Structure to design on (509 residues):
């Protein structure tokens, strides 16, 4: 096996079966020392499975794994860690009441019976953080720090254990644009230090920004490994999905109609009496997609909650179709023709242990169409759900599946089907494509445009500026609980919007 001496990782002919299902089929993957290698594939393609085997979580059904040219058979992740591997999972495994340092040293075996020296560990953690440019307070508690910082703690934990080969499973799905930039810088620094990095991501732009090579996996099989600088984003997308994907949105010009939603001087406070929305003004017109651009935490969640009746409005007025809906109940608001795709599809969007059919009528089971005198009309519900599953391409096409067993993209399609089929005059779409792969993103974006083309209003709230730019007819920038400025999408660009997202320039404020 001389040929793979220079490789950090060589996975050879890896196959993994779960029962009858083949999640990985004869995959070869090689990772050079010091490279940033991305794994690209749609949801369910088999990326995490491949990495879990590399990290010793379970053995391959067949195939071999070499680390630095040496054949390995990991019994568990501890074996993998000893061989220099480290994995940063998508869901962090940190203990909330503990400090950063405590979390990092947690689980380290005392060496030679000697207890871990916390003081020394703390210094080492600080040194490590400085070396890679992490801005952290080692004594802060996990419960008090942002998601982005928690991820840094996970990375430090892996580095503290001496990892040379780091695996990141979709690390940017939970981050804001700024945090993503910081992570990209951290990863680039790691590779400059000679570490090898494997990063699973759907985001083509991120691959182009940081990766040296990219391996594309589709339905459990390796499609190709390419040099990132030799391929375009759209070529990567096509390889991943197996057909031509349209990354640009095709949007016809459209005459906008009258104002559907009008928000005047809205004030929403949190429990500590701090204003989260402060003198907030906005109007949304029929036939437009109105994008709200902004960094996470500037009042977006409060805006969505106020509009959907989930949060008390302290003052100001919301007018929807000429009616005052200020402080109405969620039910009254839905019934008046306002539907929403919630920010967190697993918490507010779906009941995960309900079936797809049950989720489809979550908001309309009380309608005459689906129930009579409190008794559900099972046949109507089933035929309605089956049609939606077909129309919105929910896979698998089975309305008896539990929502929790679907992939993220398909969960989102269920929500979209439910919300759009209600034929709302205003659809609020909050982070509609967060964490989804390009195939599903294309699908969901097209549905939003279809709503607009039908003359309906869409309020799009997204942290992804690309998404706002691609879809919106008008763009309003939210900052510190206020709309700083509203732009016609044709008269602005990412740079200008980005400037306002950071607070705008002082003269205009
Ligand atoms: N422990 C498991 N048992 C059964 N099926 C699994 C298991 N882990 C993954 N799978 C299946 O293998 C396929 C690939 O999953 P995964 O590797 O998580 O995909 P990806 O990370 O590319 O989204 C999926 O269809 C998934 O349902
Ligand atoms: Mg995965």
């Amino acid at each position: 096996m001389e040929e793979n001496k220079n490789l950090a990782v060589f996975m050879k002919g890896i196959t993994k079966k779960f029962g009858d299902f083949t999640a990985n089929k004869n995959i070869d993957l090689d990772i050079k020392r010091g490279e940033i290698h991305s794994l690209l594939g749609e949801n369910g393609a088999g990326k995490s499975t491949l990495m879990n085997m590399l990290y010793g979580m379970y053995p391959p059904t067949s195939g071999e794994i070499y680390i630095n040219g040496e054949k390995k058979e990991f019994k568990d992740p501890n074996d993998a860690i000893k061989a220099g591997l480290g994995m940063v999972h998508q869901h962090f495994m940190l203990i909330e009441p503990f400090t950063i340092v405590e979390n990092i040293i947690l689980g380290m075996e005392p060496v030679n019976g000697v207890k871990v020296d916390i003081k020394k560990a703390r210094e080492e953690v600080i040194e490590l953080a400085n070396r890679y440019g992490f801005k952290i307070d080692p004594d802060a508690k996990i419960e008090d720090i942002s998601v982005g910082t928690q991820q840094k703690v996970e990375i430090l934990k892996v580095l503290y254990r001496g990892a040379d080969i780091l695996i990141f499973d979709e690390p940017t799905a939970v981050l804001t644009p700024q945090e993503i930039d910081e992570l990209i810088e951290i990863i680039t620094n790691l590779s400059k230090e000679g570490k090898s990095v494997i990063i699973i991501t759907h985001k083509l732009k991120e691959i182009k920004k940081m990766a040296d090579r990219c391996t594309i996996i589709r339905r459990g099989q390796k499609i190709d490994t390419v040099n990132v600088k030799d391929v375009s984003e759209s070529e990567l997308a096509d390889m991943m999905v197996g057909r031509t994907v349209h990354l640009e949105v095709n949007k016809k010009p459209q005459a906008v109609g009258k104002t559907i939603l009008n928000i005047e001087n809205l004030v929403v406070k949190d429990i500590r009496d701090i204003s989260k929305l402060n003198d907030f003004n906005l109007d949304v017109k029929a036939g437009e997609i109105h994008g709200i651009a902004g960094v996470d935490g500037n009042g977006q969640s409060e805006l969505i909650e106020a509009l959907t009746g989930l949060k008390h409005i302290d003052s100001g007025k919301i007018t929807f179709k000429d009616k005052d809906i200020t402080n109405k109940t969620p039910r009254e608001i839905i019934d008046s023709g306002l539907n929403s795709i919630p920010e967190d599809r697993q918490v507010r969007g779906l009941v995960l242990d309900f079936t797809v059919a049950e989720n489809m009528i979550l908001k309309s089971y009380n309608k005459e169409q689906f129930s009579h005198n409190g008794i559900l009309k099972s046949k109507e519900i089933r035929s309605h759900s089956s049609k939606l599953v077909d129309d919105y391409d929910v896979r698998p096409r089975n309305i008896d599946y539990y929502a929790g067993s679907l992939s993220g993209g398909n969960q989102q399609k269920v929500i979209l089907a439910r919300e759009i089929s209600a034929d709302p005059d205003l659809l609020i779409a909050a982070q509609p494509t967060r964490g989804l792969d390009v195939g599903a993103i294309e699908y969901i974006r097209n549905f939003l445009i279809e709503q607009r083309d039908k003359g309906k209003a869409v309020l799009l709230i997204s942290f992804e500026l690309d998404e706002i730019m691609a879809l919106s007819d008008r763009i309003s920038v939210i900052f510190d609980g206020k709309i700083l400025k509203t732009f016609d999408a044709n008269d602005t660009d990412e740079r200008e919007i980005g400037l306002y997202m950071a607070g705008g320039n002082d003269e205009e404020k």
